[in-house]
Design brief:
By secondary structure, this protein is an alpha/beta fold. The chain contains seven helices and seven strands, in the order αβαβαβαβαβααββ. α4 packs parallel to α5 and α5 runs parallel beside α7. The radius of gyration is 16 Å and the shape is globular. The protein binds S-adenosylmethionine.
């Protein structure tokens, strides 16, 4: 499992005026805790497991900026996006478990990327994804890429499709460390590597 702290979250939030933080896959809330140190106006996190979501609500009960949404990321992301105002945001897409364990065709990331791509403030926003080992088989230190060629074709499409879609506004940067990261960074940002 990667970590949001791989990225200079607070520095980027201040330097590039990011107003919102949005996460899919809350788990224990550790990424929210990292992001909460930055001056985001709102922090949204989506968790499909209601027990984990309740625990996260308790953990961040003292921070009125934090909203924990319960449910499928693809259903709850639109709720978060509707609560934002088109201001620059940081997205941390980390709900990588398939709906059916082992069924790589039900990963939420492709639909999450479609939803994020429609955000009105996307050109000034950064999109960070974890677990690149699932989606690309080059230069990732940990993780077992699916053997089946059909599945490989399927899972390698989302990041490449997003890269093509954002080619005029963002550069796509990749990191092999841990389970691998991919980030879509606004072209105006002074960032060459992650
Ligand atoms: C790798 S953990 C997230 C770690 C967390 N983002 C962090 O940085 O500390 C993945 C989490 O995603 C949740 N999850 C899996 N599929 C989901 C989905 N379709 N929608 C929302 N949450 C999901 C899991 O229950 C789990 O808590």
């Amino acid at each position: 499992m990667g970590s949001l702290s791989h990225f200079p979250v607070e520095f980027w939030a201040r330097q590039y005026g990011l107003h919102h933080f949005v996460e899919t896959g809350t788990y224990l809330g550790d990424a929210v805790a990292v992001a909460a140190r930055a001056p985001f106006r709102t922090l949204w996190t989506v968790e499909v497991d209601p027990v984990m979501a309740v625990a996260a609500r308790r953990r961040f009960a003292d921070d009125p900026r934090v909203q924990v949404l319960v449910g499928e990321s693809t259903e709850q992301l639109p709720v978060a996006l509707a609560g934002m105002d088109g201001a620059p945001a940081m997205f941390w897409l980390d709900a990588h478990y398939p709906k059916i364990p082992g069924d790589w065709t039900t990963l939420p990331l492709p639909a999450e990327l479609d939803l994020v791509a429609a955000y009105s403030g996307l050109a000034q926003s950064v999109v960070l994804t974890d677990d690149r080992w699932i989606y690309e088989d080059d230069q990732v230190l940990a993780g077992v890429f699916p053997e089946d060629h059909h599945v490989r074709d399927l899972v390698t499409q989302p990041l490449k499709a997003m890269e093509a879609r954002l080619v005029t506004t963002h550069r796509t940067l990749r990191s092999p460390v841990e389970q691998g990261y991919a980030a879509f960074i606004p072209l105006a940002w002074d960032v060459e590597a992650i």
